[in-house]
Amino acid sequence: MNAYAHQLTRGVLDGDRRAIAMAITVVEAEGSSAAALIKGIYHRSGRAYLVGVTGAPGVGKSTLVDRIMTVLRSRGRTVGVLAVDPTSPFSGGAILGDRVRMQTHALDPGVFVRSMATRGQLGGLSRATADAAVILDAGGFDVIVIETVGVGQAEIEISRTADMSVVVAMPGSGDGVQALKAGVMEIADLFVVNKADHNGADRAVSEIKTMLGLNEYGPDDWQPPVLQTCATDGIGVDDVVDTVDRFRARADGVAGRRRQARVCGRIRQLASDGFLEHAEHRVLEPGAFDQLVDQVAGAEMDPYTAAEAVMDQALRSPRGANRTDDAEPLTGVLEHIGIAVRDLDTALVFYRDALGLELEGVVEEVASQHVRAQFVSAGPATLELLEATSPQSPIARSIERRGPGLHHLTLRVDDIVAVLARLKARGVRLIDEEPRMGAGGRLVAFIHPSAAHGVLVELLESPALADSTGRGA
After folding, report:
1. Assigned CATH for 333-465
2. What is the CATH T-level fold of the domain 46-252, as seen in this structure?
3. Alpha helices in 111-236, H assignment, sequence order
């Protein structure tokens, strides 16, 4: 993580509003910086309660959310709002106007309102909504309200994002439940008939309750209440917040199951996106994906066959065989940690006698490296204490420059020649471009510290491919 990302992460965790705003901008842009940011703050999430507010255009969602904020603030809770607005399919722009109706809280330090564009995403939300909610959660807000775009009959993405879904309707719009059919009707934990001062409010409530009556509810099941509000005057909004609190207080495990489903969906989405990116840019030859698109568009191939071709190449080809960066990542197991010491016998007094660690074998002198080495078992890890036997020893030069201490990490690999070839293909700076013999007759090679962020890394070939079972130098 670079210095800017680290500073941004720290600011979010400290609740700095400017950092929170900048962090949401980063996740909207997606990319590696967004992933690094979420990784740095996710451990502080999971404490806020997410309330989704959805419904058809014009039912008064934004005004209702504004009034809900007022009630929550009067009860001492901090509120974060994510208001999602549609993106034009023609110009690609968006009028982020939802927060115009929330200006009464503009100077309230306990409220944060952010408008987001869908950017072509279906379901009433933006792709970055989930990550933006994590940022507000980690930033310390008690309640996060997510207002969707004006949705139709099947845009139910909010149910996979929020802990509770509030569906808003209004009277006097033709068929009172036209927008509340299969899909939206089934995700609601609370129905709100807003603009209850209009004619037909009671009828709309009755129609919704009639539809709910078609469902079978057990004695302990939550049956979604149907409330009336007049958000412009704040009438009925206290009842809405009270109902949200009652739903949140239920001990039937719904909240845990929804969080599990939300996390599952997010992992699947990221894995799917990552697979497609990997397949298109690292497995397929340049332009191959576009060729498949052209073939399907020209009816020369069906989309199922095209998708199968992509998956077959991604899953069956040798790992990284067609990667543009030309190499398989290094995979290795930590073998031991090398520690440079001025005097081996004195060091053993501490590690063996004071700490009670067990010595492995006897002291070995590696003439080619001008060192004496002693391995010390530290539970699942192993330490290699190294004493220079000549001023020309790398250990002597290391101690002269930096003093005693950590000298190197040793990674055990299956085929050191193949690993070195892959590293050279990547342009990694190596001390040894060819392996050489180390302690115990095993092949070793070193990666230059400048390529490993200041740490000397030793590669050590596994015993199965080495001449003996001794350790490296």
Report:
1. 3.10.180.10
2. Rossmann fold (3.40.50)
3. 129-138, 184-187, 201-212
